[in-house]
Amino acid sequence: QLANQGIISNVFGHCITRDPNGGGYMFLGDDYVPRWGMTSTPIRSAPDNLFHTEAQKVYYGDQQLSMRGASGNSVQVIFDSGSSYTYLPDEIYKNLIAAIKYAYPNFVQDSSDRTLPLCLATDFPVRYLEDVKQLFKPLNLHFGKRWFVMPRTFTILPDNYLIISDKGNVCLGFLNGKDIDHGSTVIVGDNALRGKLVVYDNQQRQIGWTNSDCTKPQTQKGFPFFL
User: Fold this and answer.
1) What is the pLDDT of residue 145?
2) What is the DSSP string of 139-197?
3) Predicted model pTM
4) pLDDT at 224
5) What pLDDT is attached to residue 87?
6) pLDDT value for 199
7) Nearest Cα residue to 186 out of 116, 88, 90
8) Which of 96, 132, 139, 211 would disulfide-bridge 156, Cβ 3.0–4.6 Å?
9) CA 35, 36, 38 angle in degrees (round to 5)?
10) Pick from 92, 87, 116: which is nearest to 188 by CA?
11) Which residues of 184-208 are buried (b: 16+ CB within 10 A; e: fewer)?
12) What b-and-e string marks burial along 39-66, b requiring 16 or more CB atoms within 10 Å of the CB?
């Protein structure tokens, strides 16, 4: 409504701290959009008005997680801060779990731990995320190239997707999209968006992001809402 009245540009964004208790902020208009350092990818038209885009490849570290039958291994991506966790296509999710179990054969799944669908018991005591995060790799969504620029990458660090349960298990904050009828789509949820300033630009039809501590806006203009 504000954009239709010409009060602000048709842009909004948010920045959520990595610390779940740290809050963050959201903003309307483009006054809080960094003028440089942003990575962006085009928004694709969709009938449900969600923020769809398309990743060309998905990697766990340097291992590509492919989807059979997908054109060029590309996959639809939805940015959705309303989802608590990040959902992966069924085949990518299964390939990711297989890669993790192969890399860490001493980690045994604890099916009695209901914190998340996959919780792994380790052979050493785990109290903090810092005890194990270095053992895991980032999940990278590679979007298309722009001219001679390297592929645009959205990186989800282990800090964002690992949780230590009350039982001291390492739980994976990626879920199978098949369970919510999105078996072929990546849904980038709240946990993957933490520590990033994310901009939804409806004028340029693109989504942009950059790393940030999300403690305060970079300018005093606009309409910020602190969380």
Assistant:
1) 64
2) EEEEPPP-TTSPPPEEEE-HHHHEEE-TTS-EEE-EEEGGGGT-TTEEEE-HHHHBTEE
3) 0.87
4) 57
5) 97
6) 95
7) 88
8) 139
9) 105
10) 87
11) ebbbbbbbbbbbbbbbbbeeeebbb
12) bbbebeeeeeeebbbbbbbbbbeeeebb
- Give the single-character DSSP code of 102: H
38, two tokens: 């942003």
- Nearest-angstrom CA–CA distance, 158 and 6: 41
* CA 134 to each of CA 22, 121, 194: distance values in angstroms, whole numbers, following the listed order: 23, 16, 18
Instruction: List phi, psi (to 5°) of 59.
Output: -125, 140
pLDDT of res. 220: 43
- Pull the structure tokens for residue 145: 């190239």
Number of helices followed by number of strands (H, E) in the chain? 3, 19
Q: What is the pLDDT of residue 2?
A: 87
Q: Name the strand (E) or helix (H) holding 206.
A: strand 206-211
User: What is the identity of the amino acid at 105?
Assistant: P
**Which residues does the chain have with pLDDT short of 50?**
220, 222
The predicted pLDDT at position 19 comes to 84
Of the candidates 32, 81, 53, 67, the one whose C-alpha atom is nearest the C-alpha of residue 183 is 67
Do the Cβ atoms of 50 and 185 come closer than 8 Å? no
Token pair for 204? 């340029």
